[in-house]
């Protein structure tokens, strides 16, 4: 575990600030998500047109994320997040104006691209800060940060529901929320880890990396070579696939669970929304409780168990009675709660390579948000939305084959090696 000259109280304050920034990111994300139906109606879009328009947001994230690690490494986490927030403000304003004033799908798509870019930059950078805080505290906290994100989405969705019920136009809602979120984020980030601490740790880790490369080169009888791209590292790519599956199993519920309850179980719309709220609530609970499980049993055993829960939960939703389907939504929520945050933590195990690796892993994971919705829609056209959810169980079973990639370095050692040394050394 990396040491730091900062007092523990200072690191704890940084942890609290990261909680706030994650929650604000959830609020920002759900601000738009809660008004999608209103935007669809306002622009008179078909389902296919809406899907194509939403693609612009995912495209923005996918293009922005790969370079975010390098930006955070060069300029610092706080300036990087601030840039992402400011880009997001512009995007929210453009989307609101595109619906309320221009009534233009093209304008809305442009705004969504900006939102996706801003949120993508913000997402990677805040996870880097969360990973640094986690290392300095010496215990697992990343799932709790993601629980804060989930809690923010629930609160924002409820606010958005009220805005929709009151027929509040999108422009004041979206822009007002973005301004409040950004102001709160700027204040909270004052308590982030000092830039000089990050730089000091990075310099120490660079020296260790150079020594390791020199040793490898000496053993191979050749001169030291520069570190290769994170995109060429097998473990990083495998972690990315784990995160992709986690994002797919979570994102599928975000996009299709309510529809599946309404169309598949023939329930009223409010019941579908209640099922989705059940999923979100238990996913948040899983992230809050999961830190203790991870510290006690380790990443691999916990993820094996939770992904099995995701399989069982999705099967209950698909094949169970109405009340069993609600139980399934709860089990599914717990099952998908830890994959995404644990994968990001695993990508940051080595502090010297964390920015590059986390950018790669996040980019691979976010591909699920591009491919997932249209893939499930295509299946839904042929077998029904409810039966299309079988893809969730299939993916959650297959990921078991590569979960060893997220194992903690400390748990790779033998038990005797992992035990603390007693007596003189």
UniProtKB/TrEMBL annotation:
Keyword terms of this UniProt record: Membrane, Transmembrane, Transmembrane helix
Domain of life from the UniProt record: Bacteria
MF annotations from Gene Ontology: transmembrane transporter activity
Gene Ontology CC: one annotated term: membrane
Gene3D superfamilies registered for this protein in UniProt: MFS general substrate transporter like domains
Protein name listed in UniProt: MFS transporter
Topology of the protein relative to the lipid bilayer: Multi-pass membrane protein
Localization terms from the record: Membrane
Primary location group: membrane
């Amino acid at each position: 575990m990396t040491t730091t000259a900062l007092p523990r109280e200072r690191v704890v304050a940084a942890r609290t600030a990261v909680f706030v920034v994650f929650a604000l990111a959830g609020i920002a994300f759900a601000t738009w998500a809660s008004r999608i139906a209103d935007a669809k109606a306002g622009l008179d879009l078909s389902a296919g047109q809406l899907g194509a328009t939403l693609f612009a947001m995912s495209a923005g994230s996918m293009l922005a994320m790969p370079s975010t690690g390098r930006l955070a490494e060069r300029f610092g986490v706080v300036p990087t997040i601030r840039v992402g927030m400011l880009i997001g403000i512009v995007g929210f304003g453009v989307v609101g104006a595109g619906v309320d004033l221009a009534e233009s799908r093209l304008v809305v798509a442009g705004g969504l691209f900006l939102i996706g870019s801003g949120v993508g930059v913000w997402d990677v950078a805040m996870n880097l800060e969360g990973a640094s805080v986690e290392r300095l505290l010496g215990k697992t906290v990343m799932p709790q940060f993601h629980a804060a994100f989930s809690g923010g989405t629930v609160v924002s969705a409820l606010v958005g529901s009220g805005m929709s019920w009151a027929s509040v136009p999108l422009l004041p809602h979206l822009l007002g929320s973005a301004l409040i979120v950004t102001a709160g984020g700027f204040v909270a980030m004052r308590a982030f880890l000092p830039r000089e601490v990050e730089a000091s740790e990075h310099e120490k880790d660079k020296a260790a990396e150079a020594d390791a490369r020199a040793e490898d080169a000496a053993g191979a009888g050749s001169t030291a070579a520069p570190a290769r791209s994170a995109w060429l590292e097998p473990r990083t790519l495998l972690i990315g696939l784990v995160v992709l599956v986690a994002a797919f199993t979570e994102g599928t519920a975000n996009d299709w669970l309510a529809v599946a309850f309404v169309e598949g179980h023939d329930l009223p719309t409010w019941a579908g929304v209640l099922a989705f709220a059940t999923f979100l609530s238990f996913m948040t609970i899983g992230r809050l409780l999961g830190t203790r499980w991870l510290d006690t049993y380790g990443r691999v055993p916990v993820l094996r168990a939770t992904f099995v829960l995701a399989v069982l939960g999705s099967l209950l939703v698909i094949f169970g009675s109405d009340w069993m389907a609600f139980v399934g939504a709860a089990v599914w929520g717990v099952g998908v709660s830890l994959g995404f945050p644990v994968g990001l933590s695993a990508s940051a195990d080595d502090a010297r390579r964390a920015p590059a690796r986390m950018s790669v892993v996040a980019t691979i994971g976010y591909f699920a948000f591009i491919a997932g919705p249209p893939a499930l829609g295509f299946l839904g056209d042929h077998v029904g939305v409810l039966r299309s959810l079988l893809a969730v169980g299939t993916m959650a079973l297959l990921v078991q084959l590569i979960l060893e990639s997220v194992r903690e370095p400390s748990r790779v050692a033998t038990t005797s090696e992992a035990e603390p040394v007693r007596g003189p050394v």
